[in-house]
Amino acid sequence: MSALWIAHVKVTDEARYMEYARRATGAIADHGGEFLVRGGPYEQLEGPDRPRNVVARFPSLQAAHDCYHSDAYQEALSFAKGAAERELVIVEEA
C-alpha cells in the first residue's frame, strides 16, 4: 500500500530551508516519492499554524521510512534544523 509523507512547516530561515528543500527533493524522488502538495493556499482549522504544508506519496510505508533515514535525506535535513519549526508524519493510505 502507498503511504503519505505529511509535513507542516513554519520557515524561520528562508535561505537554509530552501537549500533543504532542494536537496530533499532528490532524496524523495530516489525513494519513489512524488509531491502532491508543496505549499499553496490552505485553511488552518486546528493546531499550530504552519504556513508551508507538503504532502508526498511513496509506494509504501517502508519506502517513506527508508527515505527519511537515508544518508541523502539526513544530509538535506541538516539544513532544515534551526531553519524551521516542523511536524512530519508518514501514514499508510487506506
Automatic annotation (TrEMBL):
It comes from Limimaricola hongkongensis DSM 17492. Residues 2-93 form the DUF1330 domain. InterPro entries: Dimeric_a/b-barrel (IPR011008), DUF1330 (IPR010753). This is DUF1330 domain-containing protein. Transmembrane segments: none annotated. Pfam families: DUF1330.
